[in-house]
Sequence to fold (293 residues):
Amino acid sequence: METYPATYSPTGYGIHDGEAVIRTPQTTKTLQGDGIEAICSLLTAMDGTTAASDLLAAVPDSDPEQLELLYEAGLAYDANAIPTELAAEGWERYLEPALPALSHTTQQSLPAQLATRSVVVVGDRPPVVEVCERLRAAGVSVDEAAVDSSEWPHADDPDVILLSEQLERTDAWTTANELWAVSSATLLKTRLTETGWRVGPVVTTDAGACLNCVYTRVDANKAGGQLFAETITGTPPYMDAYTDTVTELLFRTMVGALPRYLDEQIVEYDHYAGQRQTSRVFASPHCEVCDNV
Ligand SMILES: [Zn+2]
Fold:
């Protein structure tokens, strides 16, 4: 075992009633069985640079199975999964939540895989400037597409299209939808709002509804999710949280570990009220865009 483990962002761990209780920002897990003391010692010893074989040698009563248990539980990951520049910037935490969905082998080759991924950004660029920086640090090629479709293709078949919305039904919206229709990309729609942000739905290649459907249906069902023409400029207090959220979603999209709550749903987050609302969106019958795909 010549791999390099690191802790999976545990915020706390300890032994209670004979179980190891390990907390991460995403979840709390309990591990049972023999050797839980050694497992906690392993978590303490992981520093992201010490080889797993050396860790095992340094922690009394530890064995390779305990390390495997941590990998399988998503409580540790292979530090080789983090692209060098991303780690150098201290941005690895945006990729970490996607790692438990990947096998250990996939983790080890992740930087090489990310270097082959491409994202096209359409729409309002200033709110996602920092998101793009983080993606580039991970080796992802980021193409900020012009709204004018005559300037395509920037990326011949992008993996992800990020639509940074401002007003609905603008050229950017049409551009993103048309690009989605002719590519095999997943489309992710995000918007900074006056009180927080709005993300989703995630439109995959085989999604039942495209962006055109989304707007048609949401318009038709105003009680469920009325869209309105708000705009926001500058840097609101929740800008960093928005950037973090969008970055993490893009990484999750690229490794195929998207959260299911964005399927056919728009999630609106209100930073000041600390509340989340979801609106369902449905395929539009006889949609002029996706019926022909
Ligand atoms: Zn459609």
Observations:
- The chain is about 30% helix and 20% strand.
- Residues 117-292 form a domain with the Rossmann fold fold (CATH 3.40.50.720).
- The two ends are 47 Å apart (CA to CA).
- The pocket of zinc ion is lined by residues 209-210, 212-213, 284, 287, 289-290 (CB under 6 Å).
